[in-house]
Amino acid sequence: MFLGRKDPDQGTSHCSQGALRVGGQAVIEGVMMRAPKSMAIAVRRPSGEIVVKRKGLTLFSEKHRLSKLPLLRGVMTLLSALVLGIQALNYSANQALSEGEEETSPWTLSFTLVIALSFGIVLFFLVPLYLTKWSRGIIPLVSESGFYFNVVDGIIRLIIFLVYLWLISLSKEIRRVFQYHGAEHKSIFAFEAGDALRVDRVKSYSHLHPRCGTSFLLIVMVVSILVFALIPHHLPFGYKVASRVVFIPLIAGISYEFIRFADRKRKSPGMRFFILPGLWLQRLTSKEPSEDQLEVAIRALQEVLELEGQSEALPRLPTAGRHSAGLPGNDLSS
Predict the structure, then answer these.
(1) Are the C-beta atoms of residues 45 and 96 closer than 8 Å to each other?
(2) Full-prediction pTM beyond 0.70?
């Protein structure tokens, strides 16, 4: 067992080897929880009631041998997570609508996310490259050394990333999503610790988790510096631009492997040194949730544990309904 404290600054948990691994994602007015064979989305409607959608999973990243290979498994897992994330966001967006508002179609949301991903590639990979090229006239070493070129490129990318997170955290709507993000972390920590999934127990745990996607993004920023350093400095600028896109899967795969390794070794004092920056960064993307938000996260976790055959012997929180997809017995309304 890992000896984890409930101190928000630590971010480690009690997690026994071989235990069921559960991950999650904050969505609009709710939380999606995912386990190896199932997922559940819990959303609080404007009326105050909680609705749940449950779904069995048969993912490419879970059943094919190639998807188990290092580096490749990271890319496949992230693609699977992206697909599930789109589905969860679409469901939550429609459930969180007030009466009379028009529902968002899956195609509309998918198109929006494609635009957002394209914007992210431009903002975090191409813009830093152009700014680094421009800085050659100010910093001579940038034009003389491929190492310094990539270091400056990485620093600019990291600054843009931090400023972007800070700016979106100022939005009231985004802050609520970040609070649900904190509720997701607290619930998973309580489960990993073997604690009761009740609000009064869950709320004492940290809202910062070492397996968070925010920590992953920070690692991506660092790994990209190392990967791009392999690109010959004398190549034309157009090739460098293309490499920023082509190498994204490799960077994601390496970053995923580091996250897995760090999670297994997180009680090591040396590894905690590498984990801490990601936990600090989560202070921008994960906020302390309200008790109502914790109820939603706990409900999503309870549902996914039930689907995995590890249902907690706890009283149910009152909800409006449950919807099932890809499971026997689709009529699960309560």
Answers:
(1) yes
(2) yes
**pLDDT tier at 8, thresholds 50, 70, 90:** very low
Cβ contact 33:197 at 8 Å: no
- Helix, strand or coil for residue 157? helix
Tens of pLDDT, residues 178-198: 999 999 999 999 998 888 999
DSSP letter string, 71-102: THHHHHHHHHHHHHHHHHHHHHHHHTPPTTPP
Q: Using one digit for the tens of pLDDT, what is the confidence trace for 100-133?
A: 566 666 677 778 778 888 888 889 888 988 898 8
Tell me the residue ranges of DSSP E strands in the chain: 23-27, 30-35, 38-44, 50-56, 321-325
> 184: exposed, middle or buried (C-beta count within 10 Å: 0-12, 13-18, 19+)?
buried
Of 175, 197, 206, the closest CA to residue 298 belongs to 197
Integer Cα distance of 106 and 87 in angstroms: 8
**Cα angle vertex 260, ends 254, 265, to 5°?**
125
Percent share of the chain, pLDDT over 90: 23
In the chain, % of residues over pLDDT 70: 81
Largest CA distance in the chain: 68
How far is it, in rounded angstroms, from Cα 52 to Cα 198? 18
In a 3-state reduction of DSSP, which class is residue 14?
coil
3-class secondary structure, 24: strand
Interhelix angle 213-228/248-264, rounded to 10 degrees, is 130
